């Protein structure tokens, strides 16, 4: 069923979509992937102050169908984690925008009439 273009529901969908679109432009640097913290077990000796070496940080991501691993310094970890979190937030925003787009377009355009609509 087609709704009028200026219905309160379609206006709400349009405003929400525009707010989300505005957030995309302000997202900043983004990266795909995961950061892992690695520790290497130290052989058990009496002189060892700790039980492991590390931490060592690794960023893992997919590129051209292959997994790529990059070692990171401790100073890089915070920036890379923020970029990965921004990417995940961006994906959530895009998912919501897709849903809003579908709802808006279904409400404002005519579709093919259904045969034998079920109650």
In short:
The protein is of the alpha+beta class. Helices cover 45% and strands 23% of the residues. It has one domain.
Task: Explain how this protein is built.
The structure is a single chain. With 119 residues, this protein is of the alpha+beta class. It has one domain (8-41, 52-108). It contains 2 helices and 3 strands; from the N terminus they run αβββα. It has helices spanning 8-25, 74-108, and strands at 34-41, 52-63, 66-72. The protein has a 3-stranded antiparallel beta sheet with strand order 1-2-3, covered by helices on one side. Helix 1 packs antiparallel against helix 2. The longest helix has 35 residues, at 74-108. It is elongated and about 80 Å long. It starts with 7 loop residues before the first helix and ends in an 11-residue tail after the last helix.
Structural key phrases:
single chain, 119 residues, alpha+beta, 3-stranded antiparallel sheet, 2 helices, 3 strands, 45% helix, 23% strand, elongated
End-to-end separation: 14 Å
DSSP strand tally: 3
- Largest sheet descriptor: 3 strands, antiparallel
Overall number of structural domains: 1
**In one word, what is the shape?**
elongated
Tell me the fraction of residues in β-strands, as a range.
15-25%
SS field, number of helical segments: 2
> Could you give the order of the helices and strands?
HEEEH
What gyration radius follows from the Cα positions, in whole Å? 24 Å
Across the major sheet, the strand order is: 1-2-3
Query: What average pLDDT do the residues reach?
Result: 88
Helix/sheet category: alpha+beta
The percentage helix is 40-55%
Query: What low-confidence regions span 5 or more consecutive residues with pLDDT below 50?
Result: none
